[in-house]
Write a structure and sequence with these properties.
Belongs to the Mediator complex subunit 27 family. Pfam families: Med27. The protein is built from 10 helices and 6 strands, in the order H-H-H-H-H-H-H-E-E-E-E-H-H-E-E-H. It is an alpha+beta fold. The strands form 2 sheets. Strands 1-2-3-4 form a 4-stranded antiparallel beta sheet. It has a two-stranded antiparallel ribbon with strand order 5-6. A hairpin with a 5-residue loop joins strand 1 and strand 2. Helix 2 packs antiparallel against helix 4, helix 2 packs antiparallel against helix 6 and helix 7 packs parallel to helix 9. The structure holds zinc ion (ZN). The site of zinc ion (ZN) has 8 residues, from loops.
Length: 346
């Protein structure tokens, strides 16, 4: 016990490496924050930035409190039954020195991992940005520390959650309004869906044949280069006074659907904007080069089940409003792992 309070001039015999609490090597520290017209001060404009930063600091403080219970507490726990049987409330003594040693190394390793995790958090770029911002504000303030009350007055992670929820609701609302406008625009197109097909045909995409049926709301699309055909059918929409467009199960008459066509049809039918025929036609046309377009994630043509990239997704950055959609190809398996981080945008 006494040895723990001595400076650690000797290496512990257990082989546990105690991390040094010093700054990382100089070359990993980014250039100093500009103090005049500081960038970080200007970049912090939203409430969200402040709240999320405070939430991070609050979490870090909670971790510090947790770490305080390490020394003389959790770290030394295995020897409590020996030095203070009463405090151990009749917990059995370790059966052998070897068992005690193993218990001690286990707790020591876990403790070191805890400290390392904290250090990594402390030195992370996101926390550094917060410190930089605080430094910049202190400089702006003529070197005076901003005086807090010394306690957390709000639970910032709760506040952050509320803010994020609000922001999501706002985005959804905006999207609904935007979609409503687009629907109205499509409804007002003279000649209805046939005009939309006509506009698409006028794009003259090589190898893409589109035929509208004479008396039914039905369209056949043939991708010559890819050797695929799709039948589109108008179906009842979801109560928006507009039809939806579905890709039918059958391929060209007398020709069974290939595995690729089935996979592509499934992806087409899972698209957002089911009512948007122009969007669907554009998406189908993006399959023209299906046999030459590698997956945007793994960069390969076929995955380990010999499947071509049968998924198409709008590139979220390049497909901004009012611009033609930029489609990206993916293998179904490659998209599963990134589902949550890249939701299909509508
Ligand atoms: Zn892939």
């Amino acid at each position: 016990m006494a040895s723990t309070s001595k400076p650690s001039s000797q290496r512990p015999a257990t082989g546990v490496i105690v991390p040094k609490m010093e700054h990382p090597p100089q070359d990993t520290i980014p250039a100093e924050v500009p103090d005049k017209d500081n960038a970080s001060g200007e970049a912090w404009t939203s409430e969200m930035q402040y709240v999320s930063s405070l939430a991070k600091l609050q979490k870090m403080e909670a971790t510090i409190h947790q770490l305080r219970t390490l020394l003389s507490g959790r770290l030394m726990d295995p020897i409590v039954p020996i030095v203070s049987p009463k405090a151990a409330s009749r917990r059995p003594l370790p059966k052998s020195p070897r068992e005690l040693f193993e218990q001690l190394s286990r707790t020591a390793r876990a403790s070191v991992a805890e400290v390392q995790e904290f250090q990594a958090m402390w030195r992370s770029p996101e926390i550094k940005a917060i410190w930089d911002h605080v430094d910049a504000r202190i400089k702006q303030n003529g070197g005076q520390l901003l005086q807090p009350t010394g306690m957390w007055e709000r639970d910032y992670d709760v506040l952050l959650e509320e803010l994020e929820k609000e922001e999501r609701a706002q985005t959804e609302q905006q999207q609904r309004v935007k979609e409503e406008e687009e629907r109205a625009k499509i409804k007002s197109v003279e000649g209805g869906w046939r005009t939309i097909v006509e506009i698409f045909v006028q794009r003259n995409l090589p190898g893409v044949r589109v035929m509208a049926h004479q008396d039914q709301p039905r369209i056949t699309v043939v991708l010559v280069k890819a050797g695929m055909a799709f039948q589109l059918q108008a179906v009842n929409g979801d109560g928006h006074d507009m039809v939806d467009w579905r890709v039918q199960d059958m391929a060209a008459p007398g020709k069974p659907k290939t595995k690729l066509e089935t996979a592509v049809a499934a992806c087409l039918n899972a698209r957002p904007r089911q009512w948007d025929l122009a969007y669907l036609l554009d998406m189908i046309a993006s399959y023209s080069d299906v046999k030459q377009t590698p997956c945007a994630k793994c960069g390969k043509m076929t995955d380990n089940t010999a499947q071509l990239p049968s998924i198409r997704r709008p590139n979220p950055i390049q497909s901004s409003q009012g611009q033609p959609v930029v489609w990206e190809a993916y293998h179904p398996a490659c998209i599963d792992s990134s589902q949550s981080s890249h939701p299909i945008s509508s």
